[in-house]
Design brief:
alpha/beta; Alpha/beta knot; Trp Operon Repressor, Chain A; two-stranded antiparallel sheet; elongated; binds adenine
Length: 230
């Protein structure tokens, strides 16, 4: 998978993308991440990419010119057909099902903007899907882009050491994950449930499913609501 990121702050991505699973996925050629600085497409020598909003109001709005020029440049960097995502709190909320859907793509283009907003023509004039990572306002789309990359890349076949660990994640079957334990058997008086030490795999699977359901009912009943994605 190729992931292009259009951003005003390429440096923000360095530490996260160069660690752990994302780094390994790049080293092994599973993904290629290419950063492009929107400011390089500014029309003036001040590298101006935003301006005051027409009609007045606080803050600065990202100008369409540099974003369109940057996007058109990035599109041409690869022949692969791309799915383009605009990170914005106005988008549809990201979730595990969307991560799974994106993990099937050959190429993603992620556009991270400033918090104060985009000129509306960026939204309407580029063929993008709008995604939010939650109902709060970040200073820019960079962290949102990293969240999407992180959740998506770990679902690529071969990205995790153990294929099963993504399959059993919370949300992968619409439920929260069951409780997990490791050594020691007793820690500060807290004991690992006997069932997990029983060696009875069928019973363990049943117990885990039941725990998942109970935990989801208690902590996230909204996930069990059949109307939730409507
Ligand atoms: N940009 C600013 N806030 C955001 C959010 N919650 N999700 C995606 N992009 C954003």
């Amino acid at each position: 998978m190729r992931i292009d990121i259009l951003t005003l702050f390429p440096e923000v991505f360095a530490s996260h993308l160069n660690c752990s699973i994302i780094k390994r996925a790049q080293d092994e050629g599973l993904i290629q991440i290419v950063m492009t600085d929107i400011r390089d497409f500014a029309a003036d020598s001040y590298r101006k990419v935003d301006d005051k909003p027409y009609g007045g109001g606080p803050g600065m709005v990202m100008m369409p010119g540099p974003v369109f020029d940057c996007f058109e440049h990035v599109l041409k960097l690869s022949q692969e057909k791309a799915r383009t995502i605009l990170l914005t709190p106005q988008g549809k909320t990201f979730n595990q099902a969307k991560a799974l859907e994106l993990s099937a793509e050959k190429r993603l283009i992620l556009i991270a903007g400033k918090y104060e907003g985009f000129d509306e023509r960026i939204r309407t004039g580029l063929d993008t899907e709008q995604i939010s990572i939650g109902d709060y306002i970040l200073n820019g789309g960079e962290l949102a882009a990293m969240v999407i990359i992180d959740a998506t890349v770990r679902l690529l076949s071969g990205a995790l050491g153990d294929e099963d660990s993504a399959r059993d994640d919370s949300f992968s079957d619409g439920l929260l994950e069951y409780p997990q334990y490791t050594r020691p058997e007793v820690f500060r008086g807290m004991k690992v449930p006997d069932i997990l030490l029983s060696g009875n795999h069928k019973k363990i699977a049943e117990w885990r499913k039941q725990q998942s359901i109970e935990r989801t009912k208690k902590n996230r009943p909204d996930l069990l609501d059949p109307e939730k994605d409507k």
